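Protocol step 6 of 9: fold each sequence in the batch and record its structure tokens directly after the sequence line. For illustration, a two-sequence batch is reproduced in full.

Sequence one:
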Amino acid sequence: MIKPIPLDLIERIVSFRVKENIEIAILKKQKRKCKNGHTFYKSSDCPTCPVCESESKPQDDFLSAFVAPARRALQSAGIATARQLSEHTQKSIMALHGMGPGSLPALKKALEAAGLKFKEI
């Protein structure tokens, strides 16, 4: 014969798990402060301050069309114009750290707007 689980045991288990989940959520979203004094919450280990990132985002140039990780990937590779982008293959650009498949349509659009395309192998 199977006995039902005591209600007080269920309550203790649920209470324990709620407390555990709250602690995990707090750890995942820690308050941080950047070197410029901006306070922000971040759940990943990425040290980039979102305030500093938005302040440094180009407004009217080629790189302004891309999200921050893709923009930083292009900048680190020395790519600041559509012409410089066209000197690379699609495969080599996608291999850059921070460049994801979601960036590809914006890259192609930027090249097409300049009358260019990725370098063919």
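Sequence two, same batch, same settings:
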Amino acid sequence: MPHTADVRIEAWAPSREGCVAEAVAALVDTFVDTASATPTGSSDFRVPPGDDGDLLVGVLDEVIFRMETEGVLPLGTEVRPAGDGGLVVRWRTTGTEAVELVGAVPKAVSLHELRFGAASGDWECAVTLDV
């Protein structure tokens, strides 16, 4: 990114939910090496109904929030649609002490140039992270 305090991630998958899961992995991979980490916990949460971009941002914001407040990071993500139009997310997690820091830690998800939608049968997203 032209601005040194930004990181841009992109993800794609055959489904909307799969693309959200891939975006979570991309976010985590921007600042930690999880290769030697193993899951030590799990957690579930719901994202309220919204448009696709709001759902994506809601999940990515939750990664940053839980890292800052609980000291945990997702190593694996499963996303499924909720009956009300939101998302149900399940993470396999580890503590931040179990991973090696390799980049700038994201502080927020920017809405600037947020892109998320279906293209040619697959789902794609692009998000800027403030670091």
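Proceed to step 7 once all outputs are recorded. Observation for sequence two: The helical segments are 16-29, 52-70.
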